[in-house]
Design brief:
Blueprint (H helix, E strand, L loop, with lengths): L1 E6 L6 H12 L2 E4 H11 L2 H11 L6 H13 L6 E5 L5 H12 L7 E6 L2 H15 L7 H15 L2 H7 L3 E5 L4 H10 L4
Parallel strand pairs: 1-3, 1-4, 2-3, 4-5
The structure holds adenosine monophosphate.
């Protein structure tokens, strides 16, 4: 079973590439950002609690996102594998994911880290904000907050996966299909 992580800062192209990878390798795509936005759109209690945090670039609690991931994995018992997008974002989330997988006899196959510099990230995020209307993409201060959260909370996970020997870094600047081909070369067929 193929279990992939697509890793990188906001605007690195994780969602775009994750969808393409999921289609090619027949994997279930799990994006915690998409799951949370669906809760917000449906007006659930969880969505109401998450909206303000998300609009301000602050992370939702580990328990909530880990619970959503647990449910998604359990609901797809015959999956070929999973691609996790935007999760894990903290060390406790990474440890929880290891437990969720190892309890099922599974592990992370490879963590694909997309490398993109901050100037390019901001260009992409502001463009996405105009097209999608996402509040957290439309405000420069929110972008800076998300970058700060990424730097302090999330980027240390690169070391976590490097130590496990499953980290691969890919240049995330260029044509979408060229980046996709570089990613595919790192995924065991
Ligand atoms: P994304 O679509 O991945 O950029 O996520 C949008 C927002 O959803 C983030 O800024 C967080 O507020 C929240 N979020 C998404 N994934 C997570 C996660 N794994 N842990 C905590 N908060 C998350």
């Amino acid at each position: 079973m193929l279990n992939l992580l697509i890793f990188g800062p906001p605007g690195a192209g994780k969602g775009t590439q994750a969808l393409k990878i999921a289609e090619k390798f027949k994997l279930i795509h799990i994006s915690t950002g998409d799951l949370l936005r669906a809760e917000v759109a449906a007006g659930t209690e969880l969505g109401k609690a998450a909206k303000n945090l998300m609009d301000n670039g602050i992370l939702v609690s580990d328990d909530i996102v880990v619970g959503m991931i647990d449910a998604k994995i359990s609901n797809n018992p015959s999956a070929n594998g999973f691609i996790f997008d935007g999760f894990p974002r903290t060390l406790p989330q990474a440890e929880a994911l290891d437990n969720l997988l190892s309890n099922r006899g599974l592990s992370i196959t490879v963590t694909l880290s997309l490398e993109v510099d901050e100037e390019e990230l901001y260009k992409r995020i502001s463009l996405r904000g105009k097209m999608s209307g996402r509040a957290d993409d439309q405000d420069k201060n929110t972008f800076l907050k998300r970058m700060q959260v990424y730097t302090t909370e999330t980027s240390p996970l690169k070391d976590y996966y490097k130590k496990k020997g499953v980290l691969v870094s890919i240049n995330g600047i260029g044509e979408i299909d060229d980046i996709f081909n570089s990613l595919c070369k790192e995924i065991p067929a």
